[in-house]
Amino acid sequence: MTQLADQLLVVVLLLNFVVLATSRLSVSIRAVALQGILLGFLPSIIHTFSWHLAAISCGMIIVKGLLIPFLLTRALQRLLVQREPEPFLGYLATLLAGAVCMAVSFVFADRLPLAAGHQGLLFVPAAIATLLIGLLVLVTRRKAVSQVIGYLVLENGIFIFGQLLTEAMPMMVEAGVLLDLLVGIFVMGIVIGHIKTEFSSVDTSRLTALRDT
Amino acid sequence: MVPMLIIMPLVGAGVAWLVPDNRWRPWLLPVTGLIHIFLTIDLVSYPPQASLGGWIRLDSLGSLVLLAISPLFLACAFYSVGYLAYRQERSNRTLCMGLLVCLGAMSLTAVARHLGLLWLALETTTLVMAPLIYFNRNARSLEATWKYMLICSVGIALALLGILFMAYSTMVAGQEATLLIDPLVAAARHLSPAWLHASFVFILVGFGTKIGLAPLHTWKPDAYGESPGLVGAMLSGGLVICAFLGLIRVYQVCLAAGDTSFYRDALIVMGLISTAFAAIFLVRQNDFKRMLAYSSVEHVGIVVIGLGLGRGALFATLLHLLLNGFAKGILFLAAGNIHRSYNSKRCDMVHGVLRRLPWSGGLFLAGFFAVTASPPFAMFISEFGIVSGAFADGHTVVPVLLLLCLAVAFMGMAANVLPMAFGERLRDSERTPYRDSLLTVGPPLMLAALLLVFGLWLPAPLVRIIRDAGMILEGMS
After folding, report:
1. Which residues, including other chains, have CB under 8 Å from residue B109's CB and lie 6 or more apart?
2. Å from B265 to nearest chain A CA?
3. Residue A100 and residue A34: Cα distance in Å, rounded?
4. For residue range B405-455, what is the model confidence (pLDDT) as tens digits?
5. Which tens digits make up the pLDDT trace of B323-358?
6. What element of type H or E holds B78?
7. What does the angle CA B99 – CA B240 – CA A154 come to, to the nearest 5 degrees?
8. Which candidate in B109, B119, B142, B347 is best for mutational testing of the A interface (most A CBs within 10 A)?
9. What is the mean pLDDT of chain A?
10. How far is CA B131 from CA B2, B154, B375, in A?
11. Which one of A210, A211, A212, A213 makes the best mutation probe of the B interface by having the most chain B beta carbons within 10 Å?
C-alpha cells in the first residue's frame, strides 16, 4: 500500500507545478482542490481502517475538495478576474525556482533520521517541497486569490507531514485544524471582497499606503 | 472551574450576538471581564487538578499568563464602553463578540497542556482579531487586515509544522508519539536532536511572526496603527503574551533535552536583531501608534533575549513579560483617546496634549516613562534585573548591546513623545467632540497604578508564581 501512497504523492507534487505554471486562476483553484481530494485518500491508504481515519478523510475531502474551492470560485465570479497577468516573478522563473525548492527539500529530507517503517518513503521531501512551493506562490503573485491558493498549497504540505503521525494527533485537533483553515479562508475571502470594492482591484501590490516615512 | 474560564466568555459572545441595542451591548464586556478576573484569582490561588485526560491543567506559567491577560482585558472592557459611545455610527456587534471569543481562546492557551490544543487556541486568537483590525472600514485598515491575516496565517502554519516535527522526534526515538507537554519533557533526553532542532527553528519563526520579532514583524506597525486603541492594546498585551507562552512551552522541552546552546543562541540573536531594529525605527517615527508598535517589537526582543540568557535573568524576564502587557495597555488606550481628540495620529499634528487632555496626556507621558523603564515604574526592576542577571552570569557583549539599544530607543521615543505632550497647541488643529471621561481615562489609570505599585512592592504570591514558572522552564537550577 505504501507504493500507492508514494504514487499519490508524485501526483500531488506534479499538481504543485500546475499551480506554479498556470496564469488562469480557475485552473489553480481546481489543481488545489484535486490536491486536497488526493490527500484526503492518503490516511486511508497508509493506515489500517478505523472510524477515526475515515472521519479525517471525509473531512479533508469535503473541506479542501469541495467547500474551499466553492468559496474561491464564487469569489472569482464576483471579482471578474480570471488571470494573474503579471506576477512579481515570471512564470518560467517561478517554475525554475520551484524545481530548485524540490531539489532542496530532497537534500534536506535526506539529512533527517526517519522512524522505523518510514524509510524510503516520499512523505518528508514531498511535505517540505509542497510547503516551499506554497510559500513561493504566496510571495510571487500579486492577486489576492493567488495568495490564498499559495497558502492552501502550504497547508497541504503540512497535512502530508501530519500523515506520519496520525496517532499523535487525536481527532479533535485535526478537526480543529480543518475548521480553522476553513474559517481562515472564509475571512480572507471576505477581505478580498472588501479590497475589490475599496481599491476596485484585487491587486495586492496596490496596498502600499502603510509604510514608515 | 478551569473550563468555565473558557466557556464563560464564549457564552458572553453568544449573548452579545443576541443583544440588539448598540448602546447596551458593550456593557457585556466589563461584566464578563469582572467574572473572568474573579475566576482567575480563585484558580491561581487554589490551582485545581488536571482535567480532560491531562489536556488541561493550570501551572505557574499559565497562571502568569492569566494574571497578565485578565486585568488587561478588564481595563479594555471598561474603556470600550466609553470609547464605543463615540462610535455609535456603526454596529459594535463584531467588536464585542470578537473580544469575548478572543478572551476565551487566550484563556485556553494559558491552560492547554497539549501542543495541538495550544496551537488551535492561538490560531483562533489570530482569526478573531482580523475583523477587529478592520473596525474602521477604510482602505488603510483593510490593507492592515490583509497583511495581518496573510503573514500571521503563514507564521502560525509554520509553527504547526514545527509542532508536528516535535511529535515526530518522539517517534524517531522509538517512543510513543505524543504532544502532551509533561510526557514530552519527561522523554526529552531521548528525542532525536536533528528533528528537535528543526522543530525549534520552525516554531521560532512561526510563533516569532505572531510575537512580532524582527524581521518577521512587518504586519505589526500596520495592524497596531490602523486598529482602534483598545484592539491595539489587546494585540500587543494579550495576544503577544499568549504567543510567547507557545514559544516557552516548546523551549521548555528543548531545554529539558540538554545541549541548550543552539536554542539559547538562536533566541539571543533574534532578540538583539529585534531590539536594534526597533530602536532604529523608533528614532524617526512620525505616527505615534506605529511608534507604539515598534516599542512592542523592542520589548518582545528584550523578553526573547532574557529567555535565551536564562538563569539569573529568568525571573526578571518573566516579570517583564507580565508588565509589558500592562504598559502597552496604558499607552494604547491613552493613544486612542488622543487620536479621537485630534483626529490625527501624526506626531507633528498633535501638540500640547497636556493642555487639551490633561488626563490622557498625563497617562501617555506616564506610559512612556513606564515603558522606557524609568523608576519608580516596575519595568525598571525587570529590565535592570535582566541586564544585571546577564552580567552576573558572565555575559558582557549581549547586555552591553542591549543597553545601547535601550538608550537609542529611549531617545527616539522621547523625541516624539515630549513635544507631543508639552509643545504649544497648534492653531489650526481640528476640534472634535471627544472629552476625557471616567470610562476612557479610569482603565489606563488603573493599569498605571498597578505598574507603580509593583515598582515599589511586588506581592509575595506573585513572586512565588514567577519563581515557580522559572523552575518549570529551567528545571531545578
Report:
1. B65, B118, B121, B122, B125, B242, B245, B246
2. 22
3. 24
4. 999 999 999 999 998 888 777 766 677 888 888 898 999 999 999 999 999
5. 999 999 999 999 999 998 888 888 888 888 888 889
6. helix B60-85
7. 90
8. B142
9. 83
10. 28, 18, 38
11. A210
Please classify residue B268 by burial: count the beta carbons closer than 10 Å to its beta carbon, then call 0-12 exposed, 13-18 middle and 19+ buried.
buried
pLDDT of residue A172: 63
Residues of A in contact with B283 (CB under 8 A): none
Cell digits for B292?
507604539
CB–CB contacts below 8 A, A to B:
124
So where are chain A's domains?
2-112+122-205
Contact yes or no for B17/B97 (Cβ under 8 A): yes
Determine the distance from the C-alpha atom of residue B268 to the mean position of all C-alpha atoms in its chain, rounded to a whole number: 19
Q: Over the stretch A169-205, which tens digit does the pLDDT of each residue have?
A: 766 667 767 777 777 777 777 777 777 777 777 777 7
CB B143 to CB A210 under 8 A?
yes
3-state secondary structure of A208: coil
Range of the domain at B308: 260-477
CA atoms of A12 and A210, how far apart (whole Å): 38
For residue B166, give the C-alpha cell. 516535535
* Number of compact structural domains in chain B: 1
Tell whether B224 is covered by a domain.
no
Q: What SS3 state is found at B211?
A: helix
Residue B98 lies in a domain: no
B194, three cell numbers: 536533528
Nearest partner of B228 among B105, B343, B333, B349, judged by Cα: B333
How many angstroms separate the CA atoms of B158 and A134, rounded? 12
> Is residue B51 packed enough to be buried (19+ CB in 10 Å), middle (13-18) or exposed (0-12)?
middle
Q: Which residues pair with A143 in a beta bridge?
A: A203
Q: Which residues of A touch B195 (CB under 8 A)?
A: 112-113
Residues in chain B within 8 Å Cβ distance of A210: 140, 143-144, 147, 221-222, 225-226
What ipTM does the predicted assembly reach? Answer: 0.91
Cβ contacts of A173 on chain B, cutoff 8 Å: 114, 116-117, 119-120, 179
Q: Which amino acid is at B391?
A: F
Q: Which of B115, B120, B288, B347 to mutate to test the interface with A (most CBs of A within 10 A)?
A: B120
- Rounded to the nearest integer, the mean pLDDT of chain B is 90
What's the rounded Cα separation, in Å, for the pair B169 and B171? 5
At residue A56, does pLDDT exceed 70? Answer: yes
Q: Determine the Cα–Cα distance for residues A70 and A29; give it in Å rounded to an integer.
A: 9
Question: Is the model's pLDDT at B477 over the cut of 50?
Answer: no
Of B294, B431, B455, B297, nearest to B370 by C-alpha is B455
- C-beta of residue A136 within 8 angstroms of C-beta of residue A142: no
Task: Report the interhelical angle of A123-140 vs B139-172 (nearest 10°).
Answer: 170
Query: What distance in Å separates the CA atoms of residue B293 and residue B390, rounded to the nearest whole number?
Result: 26
Q: How far is CA B230 from the centre of its chain?
A: 13
CB contact under 8 A, B140 and A210: yes
Cell (9 digits) for B249: 512551552
Q: What are phi and psi of B274, to 5 degrees?
A: -65, -50
Nearest by Cα to B63 from B42, B83, B82: B42
Residue B437 has phi, psi (to 5 degrees) of -135, 170
- Domain assignment present for residue B271? The answer is yes
Q: Cβ contacts (< 8 Å) between B140 and chain A: which residues?
A: 209-210
